[in-house]
Design a protein that fits this description.
Helix content is 69%, strand content 0%. By secondary structure, it is mostly helical.
Length: 342
């Protein structure tokens, strides 16, 4: 089994576990990002209060809306990302060793090379898995409760500041979302938000750059020559993963909000302030009508969710990689011992 395949499968496993643990926070965060009413208070946008409101009004199930496609997307995204990341990383390490043999560099992959490797893997991941995440975003923001009287929709037309979300009363399944997206924009509908998402590859790029840099510093301090994160404890990997994700999230969060706004279903009310034709149009209107704070809606929730999820992912992935390598090494030793003549 190749090292790239081991890392790909381990990344998928770690991503699924992290997703299961933090999914309710992710659902709430998506709703916060797509809330277009600037008059709502910060307290109302709080993660705990919003989770309680969702449970009270819509039931526990809505906190896990879109979980099935999300798990598929997580497995696919993490698997694709780690698989190609390891392939590109191996090529970068080979190139670094070649330069070292020629008298240039120290034989290790530098910070810039790590950034490029993560960015390339991220681009491949985005182009292949974006349709899954559009479906997930639609299902996370879907609300099945009624706003009240039949005249509420007519009353809302006179209030330009509020863009009420569309309410569906029928079961909202993955097949419904797929058909809805296709009816809206054809095949291109499945790649809504792909531009800010491609720019967002800088998030995992920054994350992995920070992570690899921190790991390298610790290993140098301890004079460790082992490959990857070998030699570090699970707790140390957990902390390093959390720190790396925190730095990346703070820098790139506004792009997450823009991506979410583009991917969710647009309201039926003809308020052009809340209708976006593209990435730049979304940024311009959000800045104009909601202010800078609009680009950071739900950031506190996202930091808690993404940092914890990334920390769990790194920890589980590295443990799975270690287990797989031990298993493969053990199998090879067993094969070799059996092949020896008596």
């Amino acid at each position: 089994m190749s090292d790239a395949l081991i890392n790909g499968l381990a990344g998928a496993g770690g991503g699924i576990i992290a997703q299961l643990i933090t999914y309710p926070l992710q659902t709430v965060n998506t709703r916060q990002q797509t809330e277009r009413d600037p008059s709502k208070s910060a307290a109302r946008d709080g993660a705990v209060r919003q989770m309680l409101e969702v449970v009270k009004q819509e039931g526990w199930g809505r906190l896990y809306g879109g979980l099935a496609p999300s798990l598929v997307g997580t497995a696919a995204s993490q698997g694709v990302y780690y698989y190609f990341y390891q392939i590109f990383r191996n090529k970068a390490e080979t190139a670094a060793q070649e330069r070292w043999r020629k008298g240039s560099g120290d034989g290790s992959v530098g910070m810039f090379q790590s950034l490029v490797v993560a960015a390339l893997a991220g681009c491949v991941n985005v182009l292949l898995t974006n349709p899954i995440w559009v479906v997930v975003a639609r299902m996370q923001t879907h609300k099945k409760t009624n706003f009240g009287s039949p005249n509420r929709g007519l009353q809302s037309l006179s209030n330009d500041a509020i863009d009420f979300p569309v309410v569906e009363h029928l079961p909202y399944r993955t097949s419904h979302v797929i058909q809805e997206l296709y009816d809206e924009a054809g095949m291109w509908g499945f790649w809504k938000g792909v531009v800010p998402t491609l720019i967002m590859v800088s998030n995992p790029s920054i994350q992995f750059m920070l992570y690899e840099t921190l790991v390298k510093k610790i290993k140098r301090r301890r004079d460790l020559k082992a490959k990857g994160a070998e030699g570090l404890t699970a707790l140390e990997i957990f902390i390093l993963g959390a720190v790396a994700k925190l730095g990346a999230t703070v820098v790139t969060y506004p792009l997450l909000v823009v991506k979410a706004r583009l991917q969710v279903k647009q309201g039926l009310i003809c308020d052009k302030r809340h209708q976006y034709t593209g990435t730049l149009d979304a940024i311009n209107k959000m800045m104009r009508y909601e202010g800078v704070s609009g680009l950071y809606k739900g950031m506190g929730t996202k930091i808690v969710q993404s940092v914890f999820a990334a920390a769990v992912l790194f920890m589980v992935k590295e443990e799975l990689v270690r287990a797989a390598r031990v298993l493969v090494t053990g199998e090879l030793r067993l094969i070799k011992s059996k092949s020896k003549p008596p």
